[in-house]
Amino acid sequence: MGELAGARQSGGVPLRYANLETDLPLLEAARQAAARIIDADPALAQPEHAPYRARIVAKYERGFELFRVG
What we know:
This protein is mainly α. About 60% of the residues lie in helices and about 5% in strands. A hairpin with a 2-residue loop joins strand 1 and strand 2 (about 5-10).
């Protein structure tokens, strides 16, 4: 979220802002596309969805570990 003595702090969520006035159609199209993929392949097991799965696992690996434990 910020920097402390020049070192990036951990645990923050990087936010990217959208302009809802101009970006709403793009955001809605992305949401619909994601929903179609998840409806068709919830586990993202199909080869064409492997890059999505890899990115999700890499980004949220610790969360998946905790989910498996608990």
